Amino acid sequence: MFKKQVNNIELDYEDHGTGNVLLFLHGLGSTKKDWDAQVPFFSKTHRVITVDLRGHGNSTKPQDAYSVELMTEDVKQLLDELNIKKATVIGFSMGGAVAFEMAAKHPKYLDHLVIVNSGPDFNDMGKTGEDLLKNRTEFLETKGLEALSKEISYNMFPEDHQVDLRHEFEVRCKNNDYNAYYKSFTTLMEWGLGDQIHNIKTRTLVVGSDMDYTPVSFKEDYVNKLQNATLVVIKNSRHGVVIDQPDAFNLELQKFLNHE
């Protein structure tokens, strides 16, 4: 693990392999360990960087400074610090919001964009978004982070054969700082690209799961707004596709990279 001072905080990251850069961004309440099944696979052919976003893992947990925009600036400054001019940015869930923001604000840094079970407008997801914000905020305030971690992990990995994945994710989630998690979540739900999505020209792969909490049609809708995007749907998978179907995910990402 390495640390870099960026944007008034310290980011914890890992750096493996050589070649074209793949930058992996994890989901809300998790860490760079989301990508444990991707790092050994892709670091054989690429330089792979995984990072704990602000408020998460071993990175700084500020009292109030949270937003997708701040996390995006952190990532941009990390690339500058590492003297990386171009990277394929791969974002899962909240990491997808950061990846989208990066593509909208700093397109010159991107080789390609990969969005995994995420969307361009967390602030405009209709009833799904309203319910998520209300229910999760209420759950956090009344039952606490430990109970929420159990609930989220079960929903992501409900099958009997997924007990180990469920437990591992639950531990990762409940180790969060309450304030950092709460503010990361509420600021994420305020974020959206709006019309800026139409300006994204970066070649894009969108990966969805057939059993994600947002339907495939939701992904199809925003893929049609992007200038150069394709959608791949991975079967028998829920929200955490990079964890519950790593081989299928790695294959789709490898195919996309091989056709650059």
Automatic annotation (TrEMBL):
Sample GO molecular function, one term: hydrolase activity
Gene source species: Winogradskyella marina
InterPro entries per the UniProt record, alphabetical: AB_hydrolase_1 (IPR000073), AB_hydrolase_fold (IPR029058), AB_hydrolase_sf (IPR050266)
Domain called AB hydrolase-1: residue spans: 20-133
Annotated transmembrane regions: none
Superkingdom field: Bacteria
Name used for this protein in its record: Alpha/beta hydrolase
Keyword list, A-Z: Hydrolase
